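Narrative summary of target 7.
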Amino acid sequence: AAPALVRTTVRICLAYFASGFNTGAVDHEADGSTNSGIFQINSRKWCKNLNPNVPNLCQMYCSDLLNPNLKDTVICAMKITQDPQGLGSWEAWRHHCQGKDLSDWVDGCEL
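Modeled conformation, tokenized:
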């Protein structure tokens, strides 16, 4: 499959299992961090929330991840995939998408 198609299927699978395609999803973790947006990006490392002492590697507020315009969210997710953990950073990816045939996610799409 073409690389763009592979990236698209990965994002669709991840978005479905992370948030059910809900751009406004916020999940509060026991450690006080939050997972925000369609990809449920965590505030411990990737975005700025109430805690000023986080790395904020995506250089954005976690609330920005709730925007239905996904441009900044996708840019942040791409940064996460370049991290050594890569897609393994997402539990949803590890449990539902990794190693699976993802072609059904885009079957019939003109990509």
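Residues 3-19 form the longest helix (17 residues).
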